[in-house]
From TrEMBL:
Lineage: Eukaryota, Metazoa, Chordata, Craniata, Vertebrata
Protein known as: Stress-activated protein kinase JNK
Source taxon at top rank: Eukaryota
GO biological process: rhythmic process
The Protein kinase domain, residue ranges: 50-345
Keywords: ATP-binding, Biological rhythms, Kinase, Magnesium, Nucleotide-binding, Phosphoprotein, Serine/threonine-protein kinase, Signal, Transferase
Keyword set includes Glycosyltransferase: no
Recorded family membership: Belongs to the protein kinase superfamily. CMGC Ser/Thr protein kinase family. MAP kinase subfamily.
Annotated signal sequence range: 1-21
Xref: Pfam families: Pkinase
EC numbers, comma separated: 2.7.11.24
SUPFAM superfamilies linked to this entry: Protein kinase-like (PK-like)
Keyword Transferase: yes
Amino acid sequence: MVDVRLRFILLFLNAQDTVSTVFTMNRNKREKEYFSIDVGDSTFTVLKRYQNLRPIGSGAQGIVCSAYDHVLERNVAIKKLSRPFQNQTHAKRAYRELVLMKCVNHKNIIGLLHVFTPQKTLEEFQDMYLVMELMDANLCQVIQMELDHERLSYLLYQMLCGIKHLHAAGIIHRDLKPSNIVVKSDCTLKILDFGLARTAATGLLMTPYVVTRYYRAPEVILGMGYQANVDIWAVGCIMAEMVRHKILFPGRDYIDQWNKVIEQLGTPSQEFMLKLNQSVRTYVENRPRYAGYSFEKLFPDVLFPADSDHNKLKASQARDLLSKMLVIDASKRISVDEALQHPYINVWFDPSEVEAVSPPPAITDKQLDEREHTVEEWKELIYKEVLDWEERTKNGVIRGQPASLG
């Protein structure tokens, strides 16, 4: 009996040594898969499959560089989330962006190709890298160009297709702006950055600080309940900027932002005022009253390109679309579906693009739970998402990756 116990103890100790050896080998193997390189002011520690890293942009959420992926044999963009666990807000945004990017699949929404972390355990976990499709420029550069009607309307059509796909899944982007829309030289367009996106199912109010100021819808500025049409207002502001080559409502703060809106579009009706809570209504009603300008005055023909003979696109159509998107009362603002049927847009209408071949993503409330978590709890949720992605990969290539991304 003693001999049996002794042999069992020896067997157990040998097994422990084997597990320890395998863990050490896996750790060493993992370390050999990565290398570090300085990119701008940051150090990227990435898989060796990614080479020729070059910085291409940065923002509040992270630094982006271009690279060549030797596995997929294509150029990609790698985003390093900067200090995603420094506070609850950053952690929540990182989680939201990752979950939504994993779910969406549409030609006008940036494709997520890979997710990884060089750290080996939850305790060490600090850095997360998102690998995405590489585009040529963002809309900030395009805004400075003189576009003909075909290009202008085609870019808007693609924005609306991407937004429709998100809205079909109950996702409101909430932060559409020129720097979050990227294009290629062939005029293809994709929407990115879902750190502020949220599901429309929740009835919580949006704070006036959520969306980038210049593209905030009036209902956001005034702290009202919100709906999907906040994204349509942003598209209207972006379209106006593409026509005028300057920001339409350049407010210094959210109060000045509201003043800029009513100075140009006019003080809203009493019907709209009654939708505001008492304190906000009192403030708005005490502001000077403005008649506003006609859209012919705001957007005269001279701002637009020459009318198109090929697609019969006219300045009057573009101006009419602007007048329907830039409506203060969200309930009277044009919807995504209505905008896609507008004469300035529907020349490009293709059911396979508008409706999307693949079904809209199924986002469960649990995935984007608005309950507050500690930083450590958000960190664990994000780490699980990264591990889940790694489970779905084989030899560095995503299983079931759509052909359009591979």
